[in-house]
């Protein structure tokens, strides 16, 4: 029973990792680069929702504050691409890595100077609401986290697999020159995807905030989420979610049954194990070059 | 009537005049080749026509409209398709998906319809699939339909790229060295396809090519360039016989003496 209880909490936690990992995959799918500010986008999204919704701040209704925060962060993601990322178009991928690490610092500073560095709690209509199934206790926040994550992943998968714009984004990620030639406005598609990753990060941030206090350093969770994305195969949306869940479930179980310290290392141990056995990740999108 | 008119085209990269004052016109239904030694600016002219580069000077008119200043993503919609010397395909996708991407600008369905996968979307997809199947049949790519590009031999990739250009449904097709790296038999196939594109599909073909055998066989007219400047224009025979062209390829007697 204890194991199941741990696993449920772990799955919910894993959903957060998975959602941030989705952000990594989105950017990777379009620009074949890694956005190391993804975790900080999540943090900023959570703070924007908190700033709009908490009674001590703007005091909007939770159900209004969250969609508004998602829209604002869509614009932030879109704007980051338009104003900053586009300038390094065509530069080596390493430029994007350094740029996004720097962006992460900027986001942390911005959030810190607006909302301070001490932990704050997002007020939600379901703070402290628990559901009981026999001995099993599931918090409303955990349940919502799981449901929303699954729905969002399915939605994004449909978007990439079936819509004209989603297919265009996939094409642009494989070969920008070829994408131009078949009539895809590559730059616009990139902006849109950055916007989308800002929006997804915000959903992750709000769900994270429903489960505990937030401060400007929670973005460091992005490193674990990156491990999740790598485990899943970096180009795969379901893979990112699965990688996140795997880490999320193993962490609390290792914390309970394994010697201290193993739990903290577990995401990276899993990542190493996956990389050694399946270098392309569990849902490999990168294929061995034929020689 | 001219389908494509290029007037006094020039592009300078810093002090390098990659293309400098090139003018020519390609008639509707014509097969036109640009030849020249390596580094003459042939591919740069292609990149200017497909608007990957913006010209420093000059004008490009297509189908009666001035298209100078357009964006590269506008070309497919205007009816200009191209291939690349170094092959630019969606490497992780299948041949079929690559060709279907060529239909991108022809897709009418909107976002909501796509998400719901309405009957109208399915009908439209069948239509695009039919067009793509025609291209597959034309280029005899049936055996490779569901193969990923990254595993295919060079010659096949080259043909897939021509296929994607045809799937766009263009008026003008730009072929950048269609025969380079191909065997004699494959080059012969390319020659037949170019003939068919003109005769059966009513396409206008502009190509850059080094293989003078292919050029003489399929082209109506040829423009020779060297160092970014035009040297001669005329039938393949006339251009090959031109003393300036021969000098550009072989060097003048004086240069040889020095």
TrEMBL record, chain A:
One of its GO terms (biological process) is amino acid transport. It is found in: Cell inner membrane. It is a multi-pass membrane protein. This is Amino acid/amide ABC transporter membrane protein 1 (HAAT family). Belongs to the binding-protein-dependent transport system permease family. LivHM subfamily. It holds the Pfam family BPD_transp_2. It comes from the Bacteria. It comes from Marinobacterium mangrovicola. The chain crosses the membrane at residues 6-28, 40-56, 62-84, 96-117, 137-160, 192-214, 226-250, 262-284. CDD domains: TM_PBP1_LivH_like. Keywords: Amino-acid transport, Cell membrane, Membrane, Transmembrane, Transmembrane helix, Transport. InterPro entries: ABC_transp_permease, BCAA_transport_permease. One of its GO terms (cellular component) is plasma membrane. GO terms for molecular function: transmembrane transporter activity. Its main location: membrane.
TrEMBL record, chain B:
The keyword ATP-binding applies. One of its GO terms (molecular function) is ATP hydrolysis activity. InterPro entries: AAA+_ATPase, ABC_AA/LPS_Transport, ABC_transporter-like_ATP-bd, BCA_ABC_TP_C, P-loop_NTPase. Keywords: ATP-binding, Nucleotide-binding, Transport. Pfam families: ABC_tran, BCA_ABC_TP_C. One of its GO terms (cellular component) is plasma membrane. It comes from the Bacteria. PROSITE patterns: ABC_TRANSPORTER_2. Gene3D superfamilies: P-loop containing nucleotide triphosphate hydrolases. Residues 4-252 form the ABC transporter domain. SUPFAM superfamilies: P-loop containing nucleoside triphosphate hydrolases. This is Amino acid/amide ABC transporter ATP-binding protein 1 (HAAT family). The lineage of its organism: Bacteria, Pseudomonadati, Pseudomonadota, Gammaproteobacteria, Oceanospirillales.
């Amino acid at each position: 029973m204890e194991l199941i209880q741990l696993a449920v909490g772990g799955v919910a936690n894993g959903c957060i990792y998975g959602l941030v990992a989705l952000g990594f995959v989105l950017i990777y799918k379009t620009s074949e680069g890694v956005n190391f500010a993804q975790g900080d986008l999540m943090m900023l999204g959570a703070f924007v929702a908190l700033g709009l919704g908490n009674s001590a701040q703007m005091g909007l209704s939770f159900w209004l504050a969250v969609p508004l925060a998602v829209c604002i962060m869509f614009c932030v993601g879109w704007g980051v691409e338009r104003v900053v990322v586009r300038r390094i178009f065509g530069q080596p991928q390493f430029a994007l890595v350094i740029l996004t690490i720097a962006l992460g610092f900027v986001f942390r500073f911005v959030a810190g100077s607006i909302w301070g560095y001490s932990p704050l709690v997002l007020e939600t209509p379901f703070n402290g609401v628990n559901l009981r199934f026999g001995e099993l206790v599931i918090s409303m926040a955990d349940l919502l986290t799981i449901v929303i994550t699954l729905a969002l992943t399915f939605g994004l998968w449909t978007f990439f697999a079936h819509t004209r714009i989603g297919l265009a984004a996939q094409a642009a990620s494989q070969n920008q020159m070829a994408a131009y030639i078949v009539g895809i406005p590559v730059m616009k598609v990139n902006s849109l995807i950055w916007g989308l990753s800002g929006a997804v990060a915000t959903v992750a941030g709000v769900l994270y905030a429903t489960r505990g206090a937030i401060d400007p350093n929670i973005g460091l969770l992005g490193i674990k989420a990156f491990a999740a994305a790598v485990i899943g195969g970096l180009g795969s949306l379901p893979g990112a979610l699965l990688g996140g869940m795997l880490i999320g479930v193993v962490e609390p179980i290792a914390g309970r049954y394994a010697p201290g310290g193993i739990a903290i290392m577990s995401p990276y141990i899993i990542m190493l194990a996956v990389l050694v056995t399946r270098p392309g990740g569990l849902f490999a999108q990168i294929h061995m070059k034929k020689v | 009537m001219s389908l494509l008119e290029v007037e006094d085209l020039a592009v300078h990269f810093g002090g390098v005049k990659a293309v400098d004052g090139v003018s020519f016109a390609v008639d509707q239904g014509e097969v036109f080749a640009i030849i020249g030694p390596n580094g003459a600016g042939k591919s740069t002219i292609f990149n200017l026509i497909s608007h990957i580069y913006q010209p420093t000077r000059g004008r490009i008119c297509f189908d009666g409209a001035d298209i100078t200043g357009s964006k590269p993503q506008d070309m497919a919609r205007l009816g200009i398709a191209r291939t690349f010397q170094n092959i630019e395909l969606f490497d992780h996708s299948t041949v079929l998906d690559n060709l279907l991407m060529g239909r991108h600008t022809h897709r009418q369905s909107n976002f909501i319809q796509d998400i719901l996968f309405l009957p109208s979307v399915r009908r439209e997809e069948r239509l695009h699939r039919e067009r793509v199947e025609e291209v597959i049949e034309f280029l005899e790519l049936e055996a490779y339909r569901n193969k990923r590009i990254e595993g295919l031999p060079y010659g096949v990739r080259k043909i897939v790229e021509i296929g994607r250009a045809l799937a766009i449904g263009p008026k003008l097709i730009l072929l950048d060295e269609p025969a380079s790296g191909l065997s004699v038999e494959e080059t012969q196939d390319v020659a037949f396809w170019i003939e068919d594109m003109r005769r059966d599909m009513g396409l206008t073909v502009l190509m850059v090519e080094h293989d003078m055998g292919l050029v003489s066989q399929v082209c109506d007219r040829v423009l020779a360039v060297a160092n970014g400047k035009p040297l001669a224009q005329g039938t393949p025979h006339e251009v090959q016989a031109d003393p300036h062209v021969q000098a550009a390829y072989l060097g003048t007697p004086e240069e040889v003496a020095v």
